[in-house]
């Protein structure tokens, strides 16, 4: 591991100044992703600024009836919080479907959505990877693509040597629920505070796959706010994976269904960012939710999906799988609602 | 780059300079000679290193020592006074819940955490309805224990005996 300096400043303002002043500085929260990357050589900072004890660890009520999750609240605490379980079950379920008990006890609200991709080539410093080493190429194209994207990519076989190529997915379960809930991200940066809608936090690769989010260097997540939901809103998270526990998603679905209102759907592990199925949502607006209408709406959502060929048959299976997972999730939510 | 840290491990306070890159796991094993937490993967994947860090089961292989200055750590070695066994340790013996034993200190610490979390009514992925209250008995059914312990891998596959051991230690009918 490359040597680095460690700092635990007095408060968040100082932490932001410290990171902003050093181009090769990073924030540290629970460390379950960053420390792994320090060991692998994927992250090679000169300065590590520890914010775990500086940001709030509380889950608190907001005046509008929503909830504020302090950046240092742990995944376990948020998933166990009564208000989260009763009002935002989709979030409790997503958190509980992620990682393990030990990891959730350490992982934080700020760190979880900012975890990096689990693309195996990203984690292997001996292979080209545009996300880790801009301009080096993408080893995943035509390689092991089982966990890779089918949405938001440019082509079924992107140019592996092009600097903009990246077919990675975002691995967080929590982030998929937060996208469906229209959460708001509270950020403190060198230029002051700003609020970012959660659905705009993560980027598509665009021309710079090394950037996962729109956060600028030195910008710190201080809290994530959950907006209030109408009474009687139902929500659920469904994760499909290679084994029953302790595995990343092949695909996942977060759905939020207000009574008599319009359904919100977010998809996980299908794109470089949590994917709000806005096209399907639009087609389902005012419509009755039946297996048929949902399947048709998802067909439209997935019309532009690009299966990636690769080892073991590639990842084309994700397209029908995510469609069926949405149908199953909404079928359960609507039958719960009519029960 | 060095930094000074103070840690309490199994009741003994230690103050020592550490390289900022040192994990809590390496500090305990290499510097303090406490080899109870095992190094299986060193990447947060196997659970062999599980300890109670500030009262909660966590993974010291992914924790920088400098970031945990002042922490209280209990390893499997410190769960009970010398010469005695913690109820979870006794249950692992009674249920024959191990073979080679390499994963066992991590399993035991994880089980202590699982029982405590169940006592607080924490739900898990195996919980049918996360909105409902959860009694310790409901939180420690076979499927619940298997899910809650899924972060502790056992290469000898002693799982069939580990689940009843955890239930026995918690006083739950298997
Ligand atoms: C074996 C294993 C299995 C896993 N399985 C799953 C899974 O199934 N599903 C899942 O969703 N996750 C899974 N995870 C990932 C885990 O959820 C993340 O590692 C964790 O949530 C990261 O949170 P942290 O607080 O430890 O972040 P850290 O590791 O401390 O930080 C992660 C990143 O966020 C940045 N950061 C942290 N806090 C802030 C902040 N407040 N503001 C700005 N930047 C910040 C850091 O600089 C770093 O780049 C798994 C991890 C492991 C090791
Ligand atoms: S998919 Fe993205 S993260 Fe994976 S190798 Fe290609 S550029 Fe790197
Ligand atoms: S050594 Fe820590 S989880 Fe494997
Ligand atoms: S008893 Fe051998 S690894 Fe678990």
From TrEMBL, chain A:
It comes from the Bacteria. Signal peptide: none annotated. The keyword Lipid metabolism does not apply. InterPro entries: CO_DH_flav_C, CO_DH_flav_C_dom_sf, Diverse_Substr_Oxidored, FAD-bd_PCMH, FAD-bd_PCMH-like_sf, FAD-bd_PCMH_sub1, FAD-bd_PCMH_sub2, Mopterin_DH_FAD-bd. Keywords: Oxidoreductase. The keyword Oxidoreductase applies. Residues 1-231 form the FAD-binding PCMH-type domain. GO terms for molecular function: FAD binding; oxidoreductase activity. PANTHER family: OXIDOREDUCTASE, XANTHINE DEHYDROGENASE SUBUNIT C-RELATED. This is Xanthine dehydrogenase family protein subunit M. It comes from Modestobacter muralis.
From TrEMBL, chain B:
Residues 3-79 form the 2Fe-2S ferredoxin-type domain. This is 2Fe-2S iron-sulfur cluster binding domain-containing protein. Pfam families: Fer2 (PF00111), Fer2_2 (PF01799). The keyword Oxidoreductase applies. GO terms for molecular function: 2 iron, 2 sulfur cluster binding; metal ion binding; oxidoreductase activity, acting on the aldehyde or oxo group of donors. Pathway: Alkaloid degradation; nicotine degradation. PROSITE patterns: 2FE2S_FER_1, 2FE2S_FER_2. Keywords: 2Fe-2S, Iron, Iron-sulfur, Metal-binding, Oxidoreductase. It comes from the Bacteria. Transmembrane segments: none annotated. CDD domains: fer2. It comes from Modestobacter muralis. Coiled coil: none annotated.
